[in-house]
Every structure is written in structure tokens, then in C-alpha cells.
Request: fold
Amino acid sequence: MVWLINRQRYLSFNNLQISQTFLRKLLRNNFTNIAIQRNMQVFDYFFEYFLDLKSKNYFCKKIILKIFNSIQSFTTQSKTIVTLGTFDGVHLGHKKILEKVIASSKNLNAESVVLTFFPHPRTVLQSTEEMKQLNTIDEKIVLMNELGIDNLVIHPFDKDFSRLTAEEFVKNVLIEQFNIKKIIIGHDHRFGRNRTADINDLIEFGKEHDFEVEQISAEEINEAAISSTKIRNALNEGNIDLANQYLGYEYMISGKVIEGKKLGRTIGFPTANIFVEENYKLIPKCGVYIVKVNVLERAFFGMMNIGTNPTTDDSKNQKIEVNILEFDNDIYNKSITIHFLKRVREEKKFDTLNDLKNQLNLDKEATLSFAKKNS
Reply:
């Protein structure tokens, strides 16, 4: 079976680049190979193809996900079921809303549309606040695709957009651009310039312009008791178990393997040094973690250290290193994805390299024990 993906090798999203790395994440379960057709229209959509191994013929099964890099670029002939928000983390609370959107679109013979924003609105409107995010754009695309959303619109958020009045937003975006049939939104959602409009205003707009408004009640939201802020706090505290529980999947980071000092190999623990290009991506609290490593289209257990390597380095620069178990390939400049499974301990400064090596052996035993129980 082959996935044939009609996209350029690199797709520009403002000043960002969406690489092929996230496309490979679609190669899960029974998918065994991937082919990239280049020079196609930017932000074209994914096609799913099945390959008949006898006749060598491809045929299209369905469109998987359409991605648009602005509201203005979105187009459809169908009516739509819309929701909007930052959806940072695409966690279990978000999934309740998104599943309602998907179910409603099927029942009403419409297309599902998720409108989200980059950069995060808070970083634009409160420029003094540094805000790390749970998902990169690549990750959010993959998560939305896995849920079964039809259309993902990632709009560049800026101060001009924030100045749209509620009426302008409804008429220019929801009606004229999205051809809306229904919007599903949280009960406390506010929109328009200075966030002056609320759910009651939206209901009145719906009556005026003939679209339905479904609100997610406070009870439904509170029942989940999950928020992106809670997940960020858990990761900043090193509480991987709680973060993964709220997310509904293993928290991950992706990057490129870069050259390091190669000290690990001298004590029997070679590590891959990882550079995460997206500087807005939240890196969990410093310490040692048991992880799952996806590299070269295979999965391995590993132990990761996030920190400054105080035993061997006085620079205080944070590094991300992973020792991959039962692995000895050259992966410099290769893409790598790390899934966080469990936190083992704090990073510690040891008196000697031998003390460090002894501790690493204990960490390895803990990782192997975990791997044996969870393989």
C-alpha cells in the first residue's frame, strides 16, 4: 500500500517551512511506503491511494485533509460546520469539540472546518509574554488529520485581524468565506474587536444569517477538566504521566540530529544531540526521561537527558540528548521524533565521570525494565 501525497517538498507558511518530516508520520499501521509528487500547487490536499500490486494501478479512495494557509485561500462549494480556536495540544478536551464537528458534518452532509491561528494570539496581543506551545504546525496537522477533520485553516494572526468587529468576522469570514451552516463553540467563547461579543451575540447573528449555533456547555467542558495551560504546567514540572493523560497521546518533540562533543561514547553511552528548529515548542523540564524514538522509519526505546550536562560542561547551555537502545546507525542530519514515556530523575552533577557512568547504568536498567513491561 502506498500513500501518494500531492505536495511540494517544502511548503511556505509565512516565514516557517513545513517539511516532509510530518508526512512520514502518516506512515503508521499498515502503510509501508511513501512517494512525493513535487511541483504541485502549494497547500494542495492529501489524496489517499491504494496500490494494486498486480496491476500496478493507483486509484483515489478519498480526500484526507485540506490545508489552507489563510482564511482568504479557503474555498468550497459545500456548506460547512465550523469551530475555531488555537487548539494547542489537540488534547482530550479539544477532541470533544472536534468530534462533535465531525459528527455534525456527516449528519448534515457538510464539510468540517477548523479555523486556527499562527502565531498564538496571546503572543501578538501581549508581546511581552513568551508563550511556549505544545504543538508545532506539523504536529497539529497530523493530529487533525488523524481525527478526520476535512479542512484545516491556519490563519496568520496579527493586530489587523484582531481589530475585526464581531459583525465583520461573521459576515466576511463565516458567511462569505466559509459558507457556514453551523458553528460549534464553547459557552465562554468571545470574539470580535476587544473580544466584545459572546455566545449570545453569535446566536443572534445565526438567526439573522441563517446558521445554527451549538454551544459546548460549561458542564461538558468542566467534566473534561483539561486545558492547554494545565498540560504546559505539567510538562514544566516534569509530570509526563499527567501531561500524556490529558493529551490522550505521548508528548513529542521532533528535530534534527546534530554534532555534539561525543563524550557519551567514551563512557559507553553514545547520544544523538537534537536540534529543535521551532523555538516556540515547549521542551519539558530538565531531567532524564524514558522515551520512544522514531528514526529511519523505525521505533526504539531510549533514555533522554534534557539539561546542561553539569558534570562535563560549564556553559549552562541547554542540550537535548538521547541514548537509543540497541541502535548503532549514523543518523547525523537525520530527522528524529521523541515520544516522552516516563520521567526517571532530575539532572545531577557528579563528582567523577565514573560516578556518572554508574548512574547511567542504573538509568539504563530502569529503561530496559520499562521497555520489557510496555513492549
